[in-house]
Amino acid sequence: MLLDNKQVAIIGGGPGGLTLARLLQLKGANVKVYERDINAAARVQGATLDLHHGSGLKAVEAAGLMDAFKATYRPGNEKGRVLDKYANIVYDEHSIVPSEDFNSYSFRPEIDRGPLRDMLLNSLHAETVVWDSQLLWISQIGDGWIMRFKNGTEATADLIIGADGANSKVRSVVTPIKPFYSGVVIIQGNVENAEVATPSIHKLLKDGKIYGYGDEKFIHVSSKGDGSIDFYISSKKDENWLQTNDIDFTDPIQVNDWFKEEFSGWDEVWFELIRNTGLPLLLRPQYCIPLDQTWEAQPNITLLGDAAHIMPPSGEGVNLAMLDALELCECLNNEEFNNTQSAIASYEEIMRARATKEAEESLEMAQWMHAVDALNSMVQMLNQGQ
Ligand SMILES: Cc1cc2nc3c(=O)[nH]c(=O)nc-3n(C[C@H](O)[C@H](O)[C@H](O)COP(=O)(O)OP(=O)(O)OC[C@H]3O[C@@H](n4cnc5c(N)ncnc54)[C@H](O)[C@@H]3O)c2cc1C
Predict the structure, then answer these.
(1) How far is the CA of 149 from the centre of ligand 1 (A)?
(2) How far is CA 284 from CA 100, 186, 226, 237, 364, in A?
(3) Does the global pTM surpass 0.90?
(4) pLDDT > 70 in the chain, percent
(5) Whether CATH 3.50.50.60 fits 7-74+112-178+290-369
(6) What separation in Å is there between the alpha carbon of 166 and the centre of ligand 1?
């Protein structure tokens, strides 16, 4: 086997990195995951994720975790309501008969990010994840690598996989190609104990999702299993807005003033959200890979997930990361390849082609979701999906 007697280091314990660790361990490989979070209890931010047949669910199945997934996912959480800025419901998936059918290709079960991470962590051998290990740099020694972490420790590996997300440190060792700014900033917040803190939004959510559109921007709200809700406010901004906006997003008065101006004329229900959010709000400028990105495969280092192909959210990111993990594992365990370089080359070619297609679609999606008639486009899209 190509990985016999080799030490594999996965940088990043997100869904992509942990899925790969699990799959490689099932094949008997020596794997460590270096994760910057301080420990397993660190709170995972972000709304729920829907896993898709042919990608995320396929990886879960291959990882032998389908029963654990079925015990953890959030039935009904995929149902959404589309609202206009006045909080009128213009489309309601709750009135559509549910299809909780894992055999149906169109079923996209939702899972919270934290429980997904826990499910994957629980499947790994003890001590696989080395917490509090934020990678600072890597350097080649012989045929392998030495890694230096922020906590002052060092480690070595024969093969490194960069699964360290949007701001990957590993990426620059694989390719000098940098993602470009897509023109969109997402501002992310979370409201704890939403039933009490934001009763109107909580009622509208019905334990699912809300998609609110108007004035070339949108607000997505998502209920989570811990009783909190996550929301994303997305709008078009110049890249330098992050430096020039002059708003202190840790300060409730400034955040409320900013929202009042930015969402002037929107219904009171949206203001309930912002008045009760935890602070600071997180500013996430959205970057995208160039659609023609390519590079020469190396024998001992590669990328997966957002590190390889960041793009504006289109509902596919986690699915792409988990499918990358599955296919990389398959290539590294395929006896047709006589060395790791050809295995990595084969994996990367297919991974890049898939990501390019998805990135193109995600850029188109970012366009229409911030267009004047986004509300109608969204409803049309949902109607076509039925
Ligand atoms: C606002 C928003 C909404 C989204 N909504 C969806 C959605 O609905 N559906 C969907 O499929 N996708 C969505 N995505 C995209 C999705 O979150 C990502 O595509 C997915 O998480 C990628 O997984 P990953 O494992 O590659 O990276 P990540 O999930 O980013 O994981 C990377 C891991 O690496 C760690 N790390 C980072 N740097 C270092 C370092 N230097 N050293 C060590 N560890 C490090 C991080 O702590 C993290 O644990 C959304 C993204 C955003 C920004």
Answers:
(1) 20
(2) 33, 5, 23, 11, 19
(3) yes
(4) 99
(5) yes
(6) 7
